[in-house]
Amino acid sequence: MSAKQILLIGSGERVRKAALPVFEAAEGFEIEGVVSRTPKTIESWGREYEVRGMQSLTAQRISGIDLVYMVVKKPAVPSVLKQLARFDCSKLDILIETPVMLVRHLGHRSLLDGFRNAWVSEDCEPLPCLDAVKSLFQSGEIGELQSAHFDRSAYAYHGMAMIKSALGGGPIRSARQRKLPGGARARTVTLANGRRATVNDPRDYSVGTLTFQGSRGSVSDAPDRPADGLPLEAILENGACHGFRAGAARRELNESEIQLMGEPSHGIGVTAWMDGMKRVGFLKLMERVRSGAGAYPLSCAIEDSVVDYYLEKAGRYLATPFTRPNAALPRFAFSLLTKITDR
Q: What whole-number distance in Å separates Cα of residue 124 and Cα of residue 127?
């Protein structure tokens, strides 16, 4: 089977520090090129890449591409999608960066309908440390998973994806946000399956922790976890991260993943490895794409960003036919909002 050709649109930090290293490591993919508004040369992990201008995109070039990875400034998303819409994209998949687009631009969501598949590069959903936690609960050692607490370890819509991943999938039934002393906030998110997560922010990976409560015990990377609580920790060999352990459950990393983990930042728990975990999560998304399963679903990512928006603006969210972002009425309302803001 020939390698899938990837075209990157964007040349910023996300491309240089995450996407390019992951695409180089992903089996079955080949980087066709990088395009951006301004031609330039960029460096990523010791390699140089020529960045061509958007005008280099032609129908012939697009016809040879299998997957477009798009990460541009959020206000520019609709205009770039319109440029791509000039071509036949019916046999082209697109992987778009979170949070897909600004809420006021969600009326442009239909621009993604012309692609064969539209997915989102939410690399916080397949974090390897969460794989170890899921394996622990599947073993039944500490009973059935009931809730999770993310203390300064989850951020905005990325946090919503982490909650869904850890607690068994969405959709989100309700959410609330309240202010805490010193500018901090506490969020409570309840999924349709009844499981609940609490999130304290602002995010600070240097002190961030994750705790998961089961019906017969808990697992956590917090230094002050209960005496009977199981540890969640990185598996280290000669200073390199080779996986994650939750109690007796392990998530071993392969050689490519170990390389992508890189070096840790300062931290008291597994979030010290968050940059590397996200790269490994990104690689897992690409493996799903290669297998035909696809990356993070577009509808899930839009729900994550809209719920986050409701919490920022109103402090609460309740899923109804009038508020679910993927329901017909809200989609129509977003299209009207986009028409107004585009004037």
A: 6
pLDDT tens-digit readout, 231-253:
999 999 999 999 999 999 999 99
**Measured CA distances, 193 to 147, 168, 305 (Å):** 11, 8, 20
The residues pairing with 30 across neighbouring beta strands, listed in sequence order, are 5
Give the tokens for residue 286. 């690409």
Residue with tokens 């778009």: 96
Of the chain, the end-to-end C-alpha distance in Å amounts to 47
Question: Cα separations (Å) of 150 from 114, 140, 211?
Answer: 37, 22, 7
In order of 135, 168, 211, 231, 308, the CA distances from 221 in angstroms are 16, 20, 7, 6, 26
Residue 39 to residues 56, 170, 336, Cα–Cα distance (Å) = 10, 41, 36
The tally of CA atoms less than 13 A away on the side-chain side of residue 127 is 27
Residue whose entry in the numeric block shows the structure tokens 């089961």: 214
Range 61-68 average pLDDT: 97
- pTM beyond 0.90: the answer is yes
Query: Residue 281 burial by CB count (10 A; 0-12/13-18/19+): exposed, middle or buried?
Result: buried
